[in-house]
């Protein structure tokens, strides 16, 4: 297949693009920074210079490709509408990337939620996630109303080395950065809040599986385990040589430093189960767990 990937220079998109290439697909990769064109070419990706605002170009590449994998921005409504319009009636796959913070709560690090979500569990999003959920619903509806084989990919906390250009994820790197600064493993509040997680290589394999055989209007959580942020802080602390010492970061300070992102990404609970990926696609994650990855990769 010829696959148009947005976010090809990023963590998810670059990793998915590399996995697609390794699976024998041809990849057109959207790149907005001309300085990154050569690096994409070296990976075997055919660079397409532009941004998510270039609707004519997005339309053109969606139409000359057999599929679109959109990873550049979970919240870019216009890009999603552009792709749906470009692919309308074609039956081609359109994979949109969301994230499991859509089911997140406002625990501020101090509450462990007992609520575990699979793809069928109803939920009401936090205020700051309403727009993202509306986009997910729009993408799924396109699978019913618009003749597009639409798929919503919903990764939890992603860890592991990028497979494409050298980029990084966001939650764990922020915890590591702050832990180095504080000389102790950092968590928000008491750190009892829990998040599911998934290794980037397992996630990239799930995208390829979904591209090849996900049903229309489908929705996939991606996870292979979960941890509390307190346990992540302890693992990070040991790996960085802080001998298990941890530091509680008050939620208001984390939010003051990192904005609302801290509220939904590192202070919340997001406990999900990838039931559809395993049952509908036969996905079998095999990579090392998050604590093992921290122990073996972090210095
Ligand atoms: N990482 C996670 O754990 C995770 C989990 C779930 C969901 N998500 C969501 O998935 C999306 C991608 O995450 P990521 O970790 O892969 O982010 P990332 O590493 O920052 O990659 C984003 C990519 O999209 C490109 N991009 C962004 N806006 C663009 C625009 N307007 N036009 C063209 N290109 C644009 C960036 O280009 P440049 O290289 O030029 O910056 C980069 O290649 C985000 O919306 C994120 O919230 C992430």
Brief digest:
By secondary structure, the protein is α/β, with parallel strands linked by helices. The chain has helices at residues 11-22, 37-43, 55-64, 77-87, 130-145, 171-182, 200-213, 229-239, 251-258, 260-265, 275-281, 290-297, and strands spanning 2-6, 26-31, 46-49, 67-70, 93-97, 149-155, 157-159, 185-188, 194-199, 218-222, 226-228, 246-249. The site of NADP nicotinamide-adenine-dinucleotide phosphate (NAP) has 24 residues, from helix 1 and strand 7.
Features:
single chain, 299 residues, 7-stranded parallel sheet, 3-stranded mixed sheet, 41% helix
Chain-wise SSE layout:
Blueprint: E1 2-6, H1 11-22, E2 26-31, H2 37-43, E3 46-49, H3 55-64, E4 67-70, H4 77-87, E5 93-97, H5 130-145, E6 149-155, E7 157-159, H6 171-182, E8 185-188, E9 194-199, H7 200-213, E10 218-222, E11 226-228, H8 229-239, E12 246-249, H9 251-258, H10 260-265, H11 275-281, H12 290-297
Parallel strand pairs: 1-2, 1-4, 2-3, 4-5, 5-6, 6-10, 7-9, 8-12
Antiparallel strand pairs: 9-11
Helix pairs in contact: 1-7, 3-4, 8-12
The chain binds NADP nicotinamide-adenine-dinucleotide phosphate (NAP).
NADP nicotinamide-adenine-dinucleotide phosphate binds near residues 12, 51, 99 and 157.
Tell me about this structure.
The protein is of the alpha/beta class and 299 residues long. 41% of the residues lie in helices and 19% in strands. The chain contains 12 helices and 12 strands. It has helices at 11-22, 37-43, 55-64, 77-87, 130-145, 171-182, 200-213, 229-239, 251-258, 260-265, 275-281, 290-297; strands spanning 2-6, 26-31, 46-49, 67-70, 93-97, 149-155, 157-159, 185-188, 194-199, 218-222, 226-228, 246-249. The protein has a 7-stranded parallel β-sheet, with helices on both faces. Helix 1 (11-22) packs across helix 7 (200-213), helix 3 crosses helix 4 and helix 8 packs parallel to helix 12 (290-297). The protein is globular. The mean pLDDT is 98. The structure holds NADP nicotinamide-adenine-dinucleotide phosphate. NADP nicotinamide-adenine-dinucleotide phosphate (NAP) binds at residues 7, 9-13, 30, 32-33, 51-52, 71-74, 97, 99, 155, 157-158, 167, 169-171.
